[in-house]
Model the fold of this input.
Amino acid sequence: MDASTSDLIASISLIISIGAVFFAKSSSSKANKIAQENLNLQYGMVELEISQSIENAKKSINDISIIMVPLVSKERLESINKEEEDTLDLYRKNFNAATQTLINHYDAACSKYIDEKVDTVRFKKSYKNEIRKLVEKDDLKEYFNPLTSSYKPILNVYSEWENLE
Done:
């Protein structure tokens, strides 16, 4: 094999190598784009699940509240009988359980935020006010005592968002 043939083979090899590099880079970019699209889809599904679970829990609380109104009014007027009082007590227990369910859903959502299983920027935009209202609501203070609360993810997210120094 003479020098010109050897140079030709080296040139062809170089061209093929450069082509392979461009192909690999193009394939890698496409794979990264597909991976990002899949991640965004996964985020969207998790966010939809969070939203639906929170809205369903809120609906339960509202449904129980509507049923309780006449009995609470009678209780305030002191015209409630024993049967109605027992019924109201049962509704209050259901109301408290529904409230805890709602807080549990927020807690799970905050855990997903902390673990970055959701789009954290969008999550903050969607839930910052709701988390603040939840933690600061006087009726719910017992659930958010920093020392005794079992809802640490909510408290951690609240602290991260509200205690910016």
In short: The mean pLDDT is 88. The chain has four helices and no strands.
